Amino acid sequence: MSTPKITGKSILFSAPSGAGKTTIVRYLLERFPNLVFSISACSRDPRPGEVDGNDYHFLGVEGFKQKIEADAFLEWEEVYANNYYGTLHEVVEKLWSEGKVVVFDVDVLGGINIKSKLGDQALSIFVQAPSIGELERRLRARSTETEEKIQMRMARAEEELALAYKFDVILENDNLENACTKAETIVTNFLNR
Predict the structure, then answer these.
(1) Sheet with strand 35-37: strands edge to edge
(2) pTM of the model
(3) pLDDT values of the chain reduced to their tens digit, one per residue, 193 residues
(4) Domains assigned to the chain
């Protein structure tokens, strides 16, 4: 995979499913006008209410594989069998050209991969729920996943938690309001350096 020309800063948020990273990212996007969300590409079908180009770039499995062959991704991963997620070079480069700070909401391995390519121009934040049990409770409360998917996500969460040390910051989300306030301080410090 090639690296885009790094012309701007980025902030990476990663976490096991259910840790609250997406809610924290939305909070920050409302408070910092120069932050903009990098819309990831994926191979899965849209969930109810999701819009192509707004929530994800829904490529389908074959379309995603074609983009891999074309070296169009900053990073990509097969998260589950035939379930791909990735970050398109063109999306990131366009946002940097507009003077924006690119915010990534990516899986843990994707966050590690992007950080390794962007170095000090990226701040990597691992969002962590207070316990595995709380992660499972949050996933079940969503009511969007089958039991099989919940079990897959829980098995993956244990692997992801073991990689938290590879991130610049570990942000515990035991209380959403506190986690959002801490995230705002962390991002402010990064943008001001």
Answers:
(1) 35-37, 101-105, 10-14, 122-128, 169-172
(2) 0.82
(3) 455 566 789 999 998 877 888 899 999 999 999 999 999 999 999 999 999 999 999 999 999 999 999 999 999 988 878 999 999 999 999 999 999 999 998 888 889 999 999 999 999 999 998 777 777 777 788 777 788 888 877 878 888 889 999 999 999 998 999 999 999 999 999 999 8
(4) 10-191 (3.40.50.300)
